[in-house]
Automatic annotation (TrEMBL):
PANTHER family: HYDROXYPYRUVATE ISOMERASE, XYLOSE ISOMERASE-LIKE TIM BARREL DOMAIN-CONTAINING PROTEIN. One of its GO terms (molecular function) is isomerase activity. The keyword Magnesium does not apply. InterPro entries: IolE/XylAMocC-like, Xyl_isomerase-like_sf, Xyl_isomerase-like_TIM-brl. It comes from Calorimonas adulescens. The keyword Isomerase applies. Keywords: Isomerase. Residues 31-243 form the Xylose isomerase-like TIM barrel domain. This is Sugar phosphate isomerase/epimerase. It holds the Pfam family AP_endonuc_2. SUPFAM superfamilies: Xylose isomerase-like (SSF51658).
Length: 267
């Protein structure tokens, strides 16, 4: 319980949640409910939705009184960062540069990205070379990149061991870490000093379920015990209601429960 006591002695950290939390409704309605539930911030997925252009989302969220914690880039093609083929390399860097520029134009100062998507090859120098290009671009645009731990963290480890830059940090996903390290939070222990943002959710010990905290098997006392005590970012959830929850709990009540859970963990 010492971890909680330390947090209580520090200033109150803000709380946030990902803009998609499992209920099908327009973006504007979702962020309205997020604000009403008492969250301070929201994280965004950087793709257009049916009724909302991604470039409009930050403005809509801010008008609702929410802070933009971070923007999460799509990761379908992230394996291409490790490919040496010139045309492929040029295309993927151009895509990331475009997204970084769009975020800068919308006063976003933190982006999250994956560095592998079940990659079939080993981490290599080409990946480092390409990541340095993205870090330099981020520095030019005055924003930071947070790399998220996934299920194959040798890629994340390889990058952090080879690049030490204040514009490159860590996004810790509790569910991914619990699954990949079998309950030891290895990624948080290794890279917590680089922590810029969080993806907090629970799971069943088998798959990345995006459960509400305390719905699954994660040991939250252990998490708080090793959580960086100098972290001054936002405590953000990345949760998704199950089918049963969507059918039995109103979205506003689901979000209220979510906020209560994050406060129970830390406060």
């Amino acid at each position: 319980m010492l971890g909680r006591e330390i947090f209580l002695m520090k200033r109150k950290l803000l709380t946030g949640v990902f803009s998609w939390f499992g209920y099908i409704m327009p973006f504007k309605k979702r962020i309205e409910l997020i604000k009403k539930a008492g969250f301070d911030a929201v994280s965004l997925w950087w793709e257009d939705e049916d009724e909302s252009n991604r470039k409009d989302m930050p403005k809509l969220a801010r008008e609702m009184g929410l802070i933009i914690d971070n923007v999460h880039f799509p990761y379908n093609d992230c394996n291409l960062l490790w490919i040496s083929e010139k045309d492929v390399e040029t295309d993927i860097i151009r895509k990331y540069f475009l997204w970084l520029e769009e975020c800068a134009e919308n006063n976003i100062n933190l982006v999250v990205m994956h560095v592998e998507n079940n990659a079939p090859f080993s981490p290599n120098e080409k990946g480092i070379e390409n990541m340095l290009k993205l870090v330099d671009k981020a520095k030019e645009l005055k924003l930071k990149i947070a790399l998220e731990n996934t299920r194959k963290n040798e890629y994340l480890d390889y990058i952090f061991k080879n690049i030490n830059d204040e514009n490159l940090g860590f996004c810790h996903d509790t569910s991914h870490d619990w699954l990949s390290s079998k309950g030891k939070f290895d990624s948080l222990k290794s890279w917590g000093d680089k922590l810029l943002c969080t993806h907090i959710s629970d799971n069943d010990g088998k798959e990345d379920r995006h459960f509400l905290p305390a719905k699954g098997v994660i040991n939250w006392d252990e998490y708080v015990k090793i959580f960086p005590k100098n972290y001054n970012g936002i405590l953000s959830l990345e949760i998704c209601a199950t089918k049963d929850e969507v059918n039995s709990i109103k979205p506003e009540d689901f979000l209220k429960i979510a906020r209560e859970r994050i406060h129970t963990i830390f406060f």
